[in-house]
Amino acid sequence: MKGLKKYLLSMGLVVFMLFNCVYVFAADNLEIIHEDGLLTVSVEDAMPENIFMELGRECNIDIIAHGEVFPQKDVTIKLKDMPIKDAVKRLVRVCALKNYLMDFKKDFEGKSRLVKIDLYMGGSGQRVLTIGKGISAKKTRVEKNTRVEKNNKKSIKSTASSSQRNKNNKNKRPYKSSFAKDTDFQWDGSAPIAFPEYEGELPFDQSSIPWDEDAQSFADGVMDLAPPGVRSQLEETIIKMSEQIAKERGVDPITADIVADAVKKIGKDANLPPNVMNLMPETNDDFDKEKIPLPPGTMSEE
Known about the structure:
Radius of gyration: 23 Å
Helix content: 40-55%
């Protein structure tokens, strides 16, 4: 019996040593440095989950993973003194993640800094990879909250339907916006948000299948509903997904209903919350529905 205990203890020590050797080896191949809003990244054959865990620790930010499993692939990438928002975009793309949202807030000096990243993958579930220590801006947040409450009261009084929506949704858990700056704006999911109008142009001429006018109008409307931070990704994705569905159905030209199905597929693949999926437009008339205005200062420059 003593011999067995001694054997198990020895094996446990071997496993512990091997684990620590592996950890040190991995750490040697994964280095992230954050200085003055710039990121320097040196990664060689590291897993995406480890990369974002190190990013969260180094940058002192929350990293929230929405979905079941990170892509199982070795990633190698080197970045030198890149602005943090551009570096995150590169990391998301290289790690083959489906989507992301960055949340910037002002610190006590009035400087905007990254405080949270939401990563979206396939499947369901949510887990916290890292938690930041937060920023010292209590006084600023209290003042902003007072202003937002006043703005919210104005928007509630503007229409009867808004009042009814709030009554129906008072028991729902508020959704913390990932594009909020320092206003603590919360969205109840009852209606689309009135983001700034999309000023870009979708590359319809680059599509291998022609688009009719209703389809183009529908796609432009979708871009207005999307948060500005994800529009650059959506521009290409909405064209490709609509083409894919049209080819599968043998349809020419691409119509508005095809684009609507493409948008739903994009949202499903990105693992968007149910309250977002329920507001997906189905016809061009849906873009005329009432939207919830954003309080002043909510949108971050990032």
